[in-house]
Amino acid sequence: MNPQLIRFTRSVLSLVYLILIILSIPLAFDVGGIDCGLTFSFTICVLYFVLATARSLTRKNKYLRWVSVFYYFQYIAIPSILTLFLSYYSGKTKPRKFYVVELWTIFIVNSTPIFTILEGFCSLLSIQAIGQTVSWLTAYKSDSWLIVSLIASGSTITGGLYFLYRIYVLPITIDLVGSSLLGSLLTLTFGLGLFGIVSGKGSIIESSLLFAYIVRCIYETFPQLRDNANQAITDIFTNTRLLVEIPMLSPHLSNTISTILPFLAANVPASFRTMYEFLNVSITKLPIPVLFNFSYRITSFFAATKIIPALYHSTLYPSASPPRTPSLVRSRETSTASITSMSLSRSESNNSQASIHSTRNMRQQFSSDKPPSTIVRLIYSYSPCIIIPVYTHLLMSYHGELATHLKFWDVFGSGGSSIVQLPIHPVKFWNWVNMGTTLLLYLLELMGSNNHIDGNNALTNHWKVD
Question: Residue ranges of region Disordered (predicted)?
Answer without folding.
Answer: 338-369
